[in-house]
Amino acid sequence: MSVVESLPPRPLDPEELLQLNSADALDLAVPIEDEGRVTGLLVATESWVKGLALDGEADGWTVVETVDLDADTERVDGLQACEAAILRFRGDDPEAVTPADAPGAYEPAVPESDEE
């Protein structure tokens, strides 16, 4: 069974993402969203990276990009290419997405203290 076939036909909960990350078949499974349920997913092994997106028309997940890793292609390049492919699949222009509103750009802030 492939990774895509093993996914439920709905967004993933954070707990399901943790289970996917612990799967022996994958080295890495990370969402492109900052919070909440996952509808865009980057998965990687030693030899490839795949960008997966929840496809409402297909009632399930689809592979929107696959990048083979080799001496000329590092994992980070594959992850970036797959994230851009997921954004395009969703109808967003990866070139127009700023770092502040890009998926994965969420940085939790520590609340300021009134004490000095």
From TrEMBL:
Specify the DUF7964 domain's residue ranges: 3-88
Alphabetized Pfam families for the sequence = DUF7964
> Which top-level group of life is the source organism from?
Archaea
Location of region: Disordered: 93-116
The protein's name: DUF7964 domain-containing protein
Instruction: Say which species the protein is native to.
Output: Halobellus rubicundus
